[in-house]
Amino acid sequence: MMAPLLPREWQTLATGCGFTEGPVAAGDEVFFVSVNRGLVYAAALDGSGTRIVVETGGGPNGAAVDASGSIWIAQNGGRVMESKSFAAAAGVQVVSGQTVRYAATDDVDGGFDAPNDCAFGPDGRLYFTDPHGRLAPSRGDGPSGRVWALDTATGAMELIAERLQHPNGLCFTADKKELWVSDTKTREILSFARHEGRWVSRVVDVVPQGGPDGIALDAAGSLWVAATDAEGVAVRSAAGDWRFIELGHSFPTNVAFAGPGLGTVVVTAARGGRLLAAPVEVPGLPLHTPRLDL
To answer: N or C terminus: fewer CB in 10 A for the chain?
Structure first.
């Protein structure tokens, strides 16, 4: 059986939007963020234009959408790069219309470093990575990266993993049993699964080129990885074979699926402040979008 063809022709849906990150499907649009401008954008999938949704301040990084259309933001607090926006604390923000509020603030277990990416889990909680931000204050020797789960109803936090080198992108497997996390420094794809009341980790694979950032799974079990300094997207089949999509001068930061049937792959390319899109043969794996009582 031949492997599905990988995209070759890419459409630019947005450009000049600063350091782009955090794409997430929203009907006939894609929400994405500008880390250094403190903005959330929306781009039409038909290429008809881009609009500013809201200014969050600080450094919005990853994004997830719930069933009501509210946008949940992993806010790094301007600790990754200098922000052109107003100051904002590190934590988790919720955008509902033009209202921005915090669902988790920088006051738990010694505080957050720089929340990076987020995704809803099958249990309705918001899972997010928290690596050490370049501009974050030091928390001592050794790696300090962590992965958290936030109960959106109660605000309770669970620490899934700690002392990771640089946890970054994350997604859940189709069977809902494993949380996969990319580590940019080690280039590993890590798996975390609940076993006898505790989280157990293993290494799924090592990305062959580029520091992995955002990740997404498609319906066939292939893992799509934004391979930053390799200037492209690495795609790992369910069998463990790797292929690579070259994007030229791009520095891709994240990847997601969008549009009807999730038949379009979108990539945030920080060089040029762009959002790129291309049709795919295999659609994306649907994300968890819980109904939340806000």
So the answer is: N
Q: Give the β-pairing of 232-236 and 157-164.
A: unpaired
Residue in the structure block whose two tokens are 């600790």: 79
Distance of alpha carbon 277 from alpha carbon 267, whole angstroms: 6
Instruction: Residues 11-279: name the CATH superfamily.
Output: TolB, C-terminal domain (2.120.10.30)
SS3 label, residue 142: coil
Pair 214, 62: CB distance under 8 Å: yes
Q: Return left, alpha or beta for 218; rule: phi > 0 is left, psi -120 to 50 is alpha, else beta.
A: beta
For the record, the structure tokens of 71 come out as 């946008």
Residues pairing with 55 in the sheet = 39
Q: What is the DSSP string of 15-41?
A: -S-SSEEEEEEETTEEEEEETTTTEEE
Please, which residues have CB within 8 angstroms of residue 72's CB and are 6 or more apart in sequence? 63, 64, 65, 66, 92, 93, 94, 95, 103, 118, 120, 126
Domain ranges of the chain: 11-279
What residues contact 282, with CB distance under 8 A and at least 6 apart? 4, 218, 219, 220, 222
Per-residue pLDDT at 267 exceeds 70:
yes
For the chain, helix, strand, coil in percent to 5 are: 0, 50, 50
Q: Indicate the pLDDT class of residue 25, thresholds 50, 70 and 90.
A: very high
Residue pLDDT, tens place only, 218-251: 999 999 999 999 999 999 999 999 999 999 999 9
Q: pLDDT class for 120, splitting at 50, 70, 90? A: very high
Backbone angles phi, psi at 228, to 5 degrees: -30, -85
